[in-house]
Amino acid sequence: MPKATTGAQVLEREPTKEEMIAEWKRSMSEGVDPFIVIPNGWDTPEDARRKAGNEMIWEAKKIRAQADAEKNAIEKQRLIDKADVLATTGRKMGGVISREINQELARNIVANERILDARMAWLDAQKKGDEAGKKQAEQDAGEARKLGGTIPNCDTEEMKRMVGNQMILSAKILWAEAHKEHNQANKETAEKLAAEGRAMGGTITLQDDLADAQRMVGNEMIWGAKQIWADPKQANGDANQAVASAAYAREHMGGTITIDHSIEEAERVVADNRSHTPSKYGNSKGRAWNGVFNKAEWENHAQFFYDTDQKAGGDKWANDNLFLAELILYGSPKEAEWAKNNINKVTKSSEESANDATDLVTIAQNVIFGNEGDYGTVVDNDNGALSIGKIQWHADRAFDLLNKIKNLDTSQGHMEIQKILEGTSLFSELSQDRSTWGARIITDKREHDALKKLLTTPWGKQVQDQQAREDVQGYLDSGKNQQGITDKQALIYFSDLYNQSPKRAVEVVRSISGAVTLDSIHAAALENNVMGQYENRRNATYNNIKNYKFETTDSKSKTTEITETKPKDTDIKPKETAESIQKATNGSSSSDAKRKAIVNQATKWIGQIEYLLENGTSTTINFNTSPKPSVMDCSAFTSSVFLTELNINIGRSTGVQIERGKVVSDYQLGDLVFTGNGGHVGIYAGKDAAGDDIMVHEGPKTSNSDGNVKITKLKYMGTIAGVRRIIQDDGSIVN
């Protein structure tokens, strides 16, 4: 019986992909080799076969999802068999969507390739003057976006870059699967696919690990989805599908661009991801900005830590905080969030804060760290047992430390320790008797490398920091309470001796006949038959401690908050605002009216609108035309006030708003006031009855106030990071 012809054959035109797939299915049912491909005009036949294979694999994944939901056992097996045949055929045709890629990502890959194909068809039709062809191409692109494609209406090279990066990501996933299965042919296929992706303009490199590659592609997906969502008609797409695709990229691919990022901010994240600009501070792996927290703000903090660390003798504390700042800038979303939760204060310098009891621990730690290891130090055999980490925890204490890392890893939901220790006996040993570690040494390089990797994870470092602080505090307490040492320099020296050997440290102190000072304890240590063998360490410790000068009376360290400052429990009552709004201003009547309108609008909401930081439902609205919002954060509130009263968009985030208007050094009603390190914003509302400057802001809950819109004295808001004036004295608007 003769084979039926496709519509394309009847019309003597190039078939659509749907027609091609229908033809292939018909050929397969008749036992005919379907490997006959007509390219789309710009692909090679091999490229077209690969794309068609991907489409079949995606369809197979959809069928397999149906099978998973099917309760009838016979029908379930029929669907599984059908999906397996389709997927196998698709891979034979050159499809490179691996088993490790789920249905949602497969759909996005296929849809994005369709969008690029539609653009190329549109360009070809434009060249030929084919208006019908252009219309068909636009329709095809729109359908692909409704399907889940996230490439917006951008230039062709940008489209190619996005598809190229998806190809490289697919190649990395395929290569990892092939490596696990020892499939050399698929490894070569993956390497070839990655090369094609780079030829398309893809920017993911060989040095980017799989998580980084997923994050980059995820951010590109969110950036594209934002543009489609912002103007679905112009983008020829579907807003709901764009939101769903962006949510998938955030939840499953590590995308860091949030709902609150503007399109311009999202574009900056994507550009940074592609540039792979390495950190200039030295601890980063050369990963690009992740887009999680404000880039300029945290680069300033990182620079402070870096400058402090570069001082003579270094500063271990500053180096540790530099590591955290870089995680905030360049780490995964989980790492960035963890680091931000663990970084609290910036001390001006060790010397200025040396009189504070807490800082004495910091100084003693720095001295000890300079003599011991670093986070990832592993000494395989240190006098008959393993020693690890920055203080060189030895034998059964190494066991205790690793168990704490294990427990923290589990409690924080990372569950990485088992993966890291895979292929060694270490993980199972950590559930056994600690006494066996009294003689546990490392003879296997895999164990050495696994331990090093584990110790340098964020939670590995967190446990070491906490344990080191507890240990050093104990050393100092022993010197002060048991040995009667009062000299702070001598106490620090004693803590280093105690870290080496508690027994010998006590011997040294008891050999001193007079007062225990830095000079006397150092001389006694050199005379000790054990400690005297470490002359270089003793001298280094002595010279290091000499740099710290202590006053006779204690003085608290000077600190600067680097987290968002919380208002104190002295929030101003709303009834005091009326008088403050009536205070004279220095502008024209036009500027006065606008400024008062801004403050009046802001104060309408005092005691209302729950505070919730960076939530997807917290966005800029016009209060006059929109329903009352359920939640807002500080910048959403200020941007909504200005939109309502002046019909201007000052930006959704503090990072954008702090660049608006003009920088001023005084206060006028309606000015934007930024506190902390620019991470919090409010609106200046004049002076209260006591003559104190006040601001209206959407703020978190405090001991005396709920988390909502409130008025607070500026003197209780911590550091003023900047003041920006939108309404100028002549009544003009600078935005």
What is the secondary structure topology, with strand pairs?
Elements (H helix, E strand, L loop, with lengths): L6 H5 L5 H13 L15 H25 L3 H20 L10 H26 L2 H17 L8 H26 L2 H16 L10 H21 L1 H4 L3 H15 L9 H13 L19 H15 L6 H15 L2 H9 L3 E3 L9 H15 L6 E2 L7 E2 L4 E2 L1 H16 L5 H4 L5 H4 L15 H11 L2 H25 L5 H13 L1 H9 L7 H10 L7 H12 L12 E3 L15 H5 L7 H15 L6 E2 L19 E2 L1 H13 L7 H4 L4 E2 L8 E4 L4 E8 L5 E6 L10 E5 L6 E6 L10
Parallel strand pairs: 6-7
Antiparallel strand pairs: 1-5, 2-3, 3-4, 8-13, 9-10, 9-13, 10-11, 11-12
Give the uncertain stretches in residue-range form: 1-13, 32-39, 344-358, 551-571, 573-586
The class by helix and strand makeup works out as: alpha+beta
The CATH topology of the domain at 574-725 is given as: endopeptidase fold (from Nostoc punctiforme)
Radius of gyration from the CA trace? 32 Å
How much β-strand is present in the residues?
Answer: 5-15%
User: Tell me, what's the shape?
Assistant: flat
Family: Belongs to the peptidase C40 family.
Keywords: Hydrolase, Protease, Thiol protease
Pfam families: NLPC_P60
Biased composition (Basic and acidic residues): 131-146, 554-578
Plain-language structure description:
Among the domains are: 1-95, no CATH class; 295-343, no CATH class; 353-374 and 461-559; 376-455, no CATH class; 574-725, endopeptidase domain like (from Nostoc punctiforme) (endopeptidase fold (from Nostoc punctiforme), Alpha-Beta Complex). The chain is 54% helix and 6% strand. The longest helix is centred in the N-terminal third of the chain and has 26 residues, at 103-128.
